[in-house]
Amino acid sequence: MTADPAGDDHAAHGNGHTYAALDLGTNNCRLLIARPERRARRRANEFLRIIDAFSRIVRLGEGLGRAGRISEAAIERTIVALEICRDKMEARGVTRARLVATQACRGAANGDEFVARVRERTGLELEVIDRETEARFAARGCGSLADPQAASVLLFDIGGGSTELVWLTRAPAGAEGRELHSWTSLELGVVTLAEHFGGRVVDAATFAAMKNYAVDALAHFVRETAEVRRCSRFHLLGTSGTVTTLAGVHLGLERYDRWRVDGLWMTDAEATRAIDRLRGMDFEARVANGCIGPQRADLVLAGCAIFEAIREMFPAARTRIADRGLREGMLLELMEADGAL
After folding, report:
1. Residues 150, 118 contacting (CB under 8 angstroms)
2. Is residue 123 located within the same domain as residue 150?
3. What is the mean pLDDT of residues 129-148?
4. Percent of residues, the chain, with pLDDT higher than 90
5. Are residue 166 and residue 290 in the same domain, yes or no?
6. Does any domain span residue 340?
7. Structural domain harbouring 37
8. Domain Ppx/GppA phosphatase N-terminal spans what residues (predicted)?
9. Cα separation values, 219 from 51, 172, 184, 223, 231, Å
10. Which of 14, 111, 183, 326 could form a disulfide with 135 if both were Cys (CB 3.0 to 4.6 A apart)?
11. Which pTM value belongs to this model?
12. φ, ψ for residue 48, nearest 5 deg
């Protein structure tokens, strides 16, 4: 996906529509604005020309596990971010959009009230999607990164309030892409796990407790997929701030670089070393790291614990890292519905 000046001729990009996808999660508010891309790009299956993007950590689900409600402070933080998203969509002339909210709004007692306040304050109509839709969008957005020779692949998306796992199998002979064999969504994410066990100071015992908690949550999906064929090329496909952060740490990046991370392969040993390096950092060192920063420093080890649990329960020689997912899946589905791809 490449940046595109705002003045590009819409006619060169298919049907003249400008598309937007907004993903409001438990931790982040993310927006992508794009047009369909028909020309060959740097990688195969790159059908989006991104013309604007926005991402902000809003912690919408902060304290939700204890209170069962979205706090007033979190609502205000999020509405400020959504106002920026609205202004960007207006400035870019967006004509087709899908704006979704996920686990925090699904699980909060005042989720409907929050959606109504967003509509009143910003004019944006949020759609609270179910777990299956969230998993489908994630698979659509990054499934093209799966090894085409692998008989099956486990896609995982570690979010703030939930973790989605999607088992993808190779399409039948003569068909393209991947089929969604099975999926699950766990009410377990970096925010909920860090709030339960603590995220600033994570010693060996705390990390082990977090991992074991995630292992228990995964047990039912392990049983469900036990008979699915796994060839020698079986691998994990991760899309989330956890795995992209780990990739940045593995590469030794001073600042996060999407172009070096998206599509990166990490061996099992490389993933272990990156996690160990992160676990060896104290809170201040995580804050100072250019791939983590102050907003993720208390959450990243919770994400690592979930990733460790996935690796333990679904052993694989390698993991592919995706800096793409839900928003890209929404954009592709919108464009396909319009016949723009």
Report:
1. no
2. no
3. 92
4. 81
5. yes
6. no
7. 2-129
8. 44-336
9. 41, 29, 11, 6, 22
10. 183
11. 0.89
12. -115, 130
Regarding whether 230 and 205 lie in a shared domain, the answer is yes
CATH of residue 118's domain is: 3.30.420.40
331 within some domain: no
110 in the same domain as 63: yes
Let me know whether 57 and 160 are in one domain: no
**Residue in this structure with the two tokens 């927006």, named with its chain if needed:** 31
Are 58 and 81 spatial neighbours (Cβ–Cβ below 8 Å)? yes
Checking if the pLDDT of 124 tops 50, the result is yes
AA letter at 220: H
| Closest of 182, 187, 211 to residue 279, by C-alpha | 211
Residue recorded with tokens 């952060």? 245
Which pair of tokens denotes residue 273?
């070393």
Q: What is the pLDDT of residues 149-196, one digit of tens each?
A: 999 999 999 999 999 999 999 877 656 667 888 999 999 999 999 999
**Gap between the Cα atoms of 232 and 125, Å rounded:** 45
In angstroms, the CA 97 to CA 280 distance is 43
Instruction: Give the CA distances from residue 208 to residues 161, 213, 302, in Å, rounded to whole numbers and listed in that order.
Output: 20, 8, 10
Three-state secondary structure readout of the chain: CEECCCCCCHHHHCCCCCEEEEEECCCEEEEEEEEECCCCCCCCCCCEEEEEEEEEECCCCCCHHHHCCCCHHHHHHHHHHHHHHHHHHHHCCCCEEEEEECHHHHHCCCHHHHHHHHHHHHCCCCEECCHHHHHHHHHHHHHHHCCCCCCEEEEEEECCCCEEEEEEEECCCCCCCEEEEEEEEECCCHHHHHHHHCCCCCCHHHHHHHHHHHHHHHHHHHHHCCCCCCCCCCEEEECCHHHHHHHHHHHCCCCCCHHHHCCCEEEHHHHHHHHHHHHCCCHHHHHHCCCCCCCCCCCHHHHHHHHHHHHHHCCCCEEEECCCCHHHHHHHHHHHHCCCC
